[in-house]
Amino acid sequence: MTKANSAFTDLLSTQISNEFAASQQYIAIAVWADSQDLPQLAARFYQHSLGERNHAMMMVQYMLDRGLKAEIKEIPAPRGEFDGPVDALKLALEQEKEVTEQIEALFQAARAESDPLGEQFMLWFLREQVEEVANMDTLVTIAERAGDVWFRIEEHLARESDSSTNTGTPPAVAGGAV
Q: d(Cα 90, Cα 136) in Å, to the nearest integer?
């Protein structure tokens, strides 16, 4: 059973802020890409930003549903300048790897506290992170292969969809998904 003062609850509260920070970082990458006339890359990151926002709101809804205090904490300013697409995409990949570690820690905390509902809640996010890391890793590879011909990244993104393979039912989103 999740308690208000458990390690899982504390980590989940922090993760809400981490997800909002990821959302803001993806907006910053999207704005940078837009300023570089990379509309496909910008669109991909605007969309990813909404996904991260929705992840935060799923966590908020879970806390509300469990009768826990959902606190929205301050987040750091995102990085907005990049040396090129590879630089921006490597930052996004490292961010996804970090989020994966955070989600794994949440799952482990729920397990250590004998909280099967917390474990079950985190399983969807674990599946999602496998996909997110793989997708970012692919984008980094594409950008590295493109070198100074950034339009090749645009061509790849125009051809390839960003469809999710996480077929599990996502958690409810507080206020509704956007």
A: 8
User: Whole-model pTM?
Assistant: 0.90
Residue-wise DSSP of 38-69? -HHHHHHHHHHHHHHHHHHHHHHHHHHHTT--
Residues 161, 45: contact at Cβ < 8 Å? no
Q: Which of 121, 105, 128, 127 is nearest to 62 (CA)?
A: 121
Q: Is 1 exposed, middle or buried (0-12, 13-18, 19+ CB in 10 A)?
A: exposed
Q: Are 21 and 98 in contact (CB under 8 A)?
A: no
- The CB density around residue 168, as the number of other CB atoms within 10 Å, is 12
Q: Tokens 């907006």 label which residue?
A: 27
Which of the following CATH numbers is that of domain 7-159: 1.10.10.10, 3.90.700.10, 1.20.1260.10, 3.40.50.12160?
A: 1.20.1260.10
Residues 81-119 have pLDDT tens digits of 999 999 999 999 999 999 999 999 999 999 999 999 999
Residue-level pLDDT at 175: 78
- For CA atoms 153, 92, 72, 163, the dihedral sign is positive
pLDDT at 117: 96
Hey, how many other C-beta atoms are within 10 angstroms of the C-beta on 34?
A: 15
